[in-house]
Amino acid sequence: MRKYRRMISYLRPYVWPWAVLAITSMLLYSGVEGAIPFLAKYVLEQLLNAKQSEILPVIVIAVAGVSVLRGALDFYADFLTAWIGQRVVTDVRNELTAHLQRLDLSYFNRRRAGQITSRVTADVALMRATVTDAATSIFKDSTSLLSLLIAAVWLDWVLALISLCLFPIAAVPLRYLSNQVRQTSRRQQEAVGRLNAMLHENVQGNRVVKAFGRETYEQERFREHDERLMRIATRLSRLRSLPVTDILGGFALAGVVWYGGTSVVQGTRTAGDLGGFVLAIVFLYRPFKSLVRTNYTIQQGLAGAERVFELLDTPSGVVDRPGASVLDGVHQAIEFHDVSFAYDPGEPVLRHIDLRIGVGQVVALVGMSGGGKSTLADLIPRFYDVTSGRITIDGTDVRELTIKSLRKHMAVVTQFTFLFNDTIRANIAYGDPSRSTEEIIEAARAANAHDFIMEFPQGYETAIGDLGVRLSGGQRQRLAIARALLKNAPILILDEATSALDTESEGLVQEALERLMENRTTLVVAHRLSTVRRANRIVVLVRGEIIESGTHEELLARGAEYWKLHDLQFGEVESSTAENGVGGEGSLLPSAVRARQGAR
Q1: Which of 598, 571, 574 shows the shortest CA–CA distance to 586?
Q2: How far is Cα 30 from Cα 32, in angstroms, rounded to an integer?
Q3: Co-location of 141 and 273 in the same domain
Q4: Are residues 410 and 291 in the same domain?
Q5: Is there a contact between 254 and 301 (Cβ–Cβ < 8 Å)?
Q6: Four-residue CA torsion sign, 289, 291, 296, 297
Q7: What is the pTM of this model?
Q8: Cα end-to-end distance, the chain, whole Å
Q9: How many CB atoms lie within 10 A of CB 231?
Q10: Between 287 and which of 78, 141, 251, 487 could a Cys-Cys bridge form, CB atoms 3.0 to 4.6 Å apart?
């Protein structure tokens, strides 16, 4: 009941004047419905008993007028109800997407994109039907049922008792069916979510599917899920279509015709009485049947609402604290103070991290995959909050700063460059769409992107497709750098920004990155050590702990973990160079390290 009241609360903004007008139309419609049996009785009595032919034109006009009035009121009520329903859908979807934007990354890491999308689309649509159909039932079907019931009792209370005696019998099967509809509806929505997730993966991963020749496998996998959804939908349709009310109504009507017809033959009732009453009963079963179907719709809507409210009630793990201050520039340093972090309790990814990134400095994180480098970088913009310890900017804990102002001071370029299915201009200016064309072009030139952009017939207005599919990896990365350049944030985070590029693209991107890093406080996450040699400080992270740190030359001279990483990437090349008598003075390795290599 609480969920139902919560759903109905979305109608509140539209009570005046739209809902009031819709309800008024419904009530008038019900009044007209209740008057029809009396009109039918009058028509039958005038034509069959009085046989006054001169009154026929008046009757025809009255019948036509009532039909037009009934139709107009029905149309107006349905139109307003549908409009209100669409407004409710819009409001709920806006609220859902706004809440999704506030959720931290951990929520999205645990769920598939297609399932989240299904809640915003299919589940909300079910809620709309529940909200609007419920209102229609209350103010249209219920009042129509009541007015027709009053008319039936007024016309003949004995026949009314005969026709209504079977109504209580319907309560038991209808209650059972309602529970079944609700449970089946929830299973259906979950199946729709899984199907959407699979379809989303197929679309996004179509290159991999084709490359491995797995089209048939994916088609069969989708077909199996689709068939499962079909079976659930068929069961739901069967439950909704069971003719409980039709059968009971038929028995009741048969009883009325038998008893009433006998009394007409015997002369204790007039044909007009019986005709008006039968019409009232026929009309009465329509809103009753509609109410039963509405109950099924409400059960489906409640199943959808459970999933929608589950999402709306999911709290974000990263929120502004009360009284959070606004970050106004970075003047001293970003510091990690005994920071630990775990995605899941008891499974730490980072342990006791102490790190200082001075303003204007470039600090690089290196180490084997899975060491926690990207996770450490994600903690600065509060994509996640630390499990223990604290991160400060100029001495202020980042959790004491507003998220908006914190992220406003940061630009992020990652290995996986996400571009929107929009124009090149829109993607570069994503952080600030108000920037001028000249500023966008200047950022593109600095990112070594302007030349390839102008090779497209439409230049900066070129649509790049989903995830920038029309561009190469290097081109996508340069657009991401241009986007970061245009934002002009004082803090820069580069997460494997060149790891997936070929040599030529890497050179262009690296040149653009060097421009981007000028006069910025930069954290670089890298596998390729060649990209971080000039960093002010290199930090080696192993299994979530800082093992060593220093400059490139200092770390090589120690011959420890960094030297091992360097030897894995460059040992064979440098050994080959040394054998050919090249590089002594120009080699990047200090003489002590080269001596160790010779000894090995």
Answers
A1: 574
A2: 5
A3: yes
A4: no
A5: no
A6: positive
A7: 0.69
A8: 77
A9: 12
A10: 141
176 with 286, same domain? yes
Instruction: Kindly state the tokens that stand for 57.
Output: 């034109």
Strand 333-344 and strand 388-393: the pairing is antiparallel
Kindly give, in sequence order, each residue whose CB lies less than 8 Å from that of residue 27, ignoring residues fewer than 6 positions away. Answer: 139, 143
Strands 410-414, 491-495: pairing is parallel
* Last residue of one domain, picked from the residues 277, 312, 347: 312
- Counting as low any pLDDT under 70, the low residues of the chain are 1, 44-54, 56, 135, 138, 162-172, 174, 204-205, 207-208, 210-212, 240-241, 243-246, 248-250, 252-253, 255-256, 260, 264, 267-276, 497-506, 571-600
The sign one gets for the Cα dihedral 42, 47, 52, 53 is positive
SS3 600: coil
| DSSP states along 316-346 | PSS-PPTTPBPP----SEEEEEEEEEEEETT
261-287: pLDDT as tens digits: 777 677 666 666 666 677 777 777 777
Exposure class string for 391-422: b at 16+ Cβ within 10 A, else e: bbbeeeebbbbebeebbbbbbbbbbebebeee
Q: Cα(535)–Cα(134) distance, rounded to whole angstroms?
A: 65
What are 142's two structure tokens? 């219920």
Alpha carbons 600 and 595: distance in angstroms, whole number: 9
CB contact at 8 A, 278 and 256: yes
Q: Which token pair is 211? A: 């490359």
Question: What whole-number distance in Å separates Cα of residue 426 and Cα of residue 482?
Answer: 11
Please report which helix (H) or strand (E) contains residue 246, including its range: helix 244-266
Residue located via tokens 């103070």 = 337
Domain contains 231 = no
Which are the contacts of 425, defined by CB distance < 8 A and separation ≥ 6? Answer: 437, 440, 460, 461
Work out how many domains the chain is built from and give that number.
2
Q: What is d(CA 77, CA 74) in angstroms, rounded to the nearest whole number?
A: 5
How many whole angstroms separate alpha carbon 440 and alpha carbon 433? 10
